[in-house]
Amino acid sequence: MKKPNPGAAKARAAQAADTQGLVKSMPDNANKPKEIGRANAVSPPVGMTRKPASRAAAAAFIKAVARHRHPERETDPPRV
């Protein structure tokens, strides 16, 4: 059996904490009302941004968002 690596566990814990900090800093999309209408389509507003605490936190956040874009959920009705 492989021994646990305390350094790797600390790194994962730090990444999780950084990712949660990034998520908490953007509780909602303040630009959502500005995503509707022709004027906003022609000249879209600048999106919200935050500087992540680490590159690992940014990568984890992007990966989590990408998971929501699953091809089976992109069809209506869902493929069987």
Describe it.
The protein has helices at 6-24, 38-42, 55-67. Helix 1 (6-24) packs across helix 3. The chain has 80 residues and is mostly helical.
Which helices and strands, and how do they pair?
Layout: H1 6-24, H2 38-42, H3 55-67
Helix pairs in contact: 1-3
Salient structural properties:
80 residues, mainly alpha, flat
Quick overview of this protein structure:
With 80 residues, the protein is mostly helical. The protein has three helices and no strands.
Low-confidence stretches: none
Order of helices and strands: HHH
Strand content is under 5%
Whole-Å distance between the termini? 41 Å
Number of helices: 3
